Amino acid sequence: MSDGTRITGIIDGNCLYGDSLVDLVILDRHMPSNGVIQTYLDYQAESSITIPNFKERLIGAYYFKGLDGLRFYAKMGWEDAYQVTRQFLLNLES
Known about the structure:
By secondary structure, the protein is mostly helical. Helix content is 61%, strand content 0%.
């Protein structure tokens, strides 16, 4: 959800699988120009919220959803989407 200038809320489309950061990763990969991760980090800082191991959990969530995406793209024969996602995963910092 947005007020036209920034994200004001997130509707959870029942995509949560264990770690809530999976939802952030889904939004980030589908709307990369919106800066979802940075907006979330800014909100954390403003609210004095600390999420332990944020970077490591975020990377794990990218791998979790990315590997699922690779499986789907391979099954569908979507070579371009497969290669873009593969390259994204290979470039993640650990």
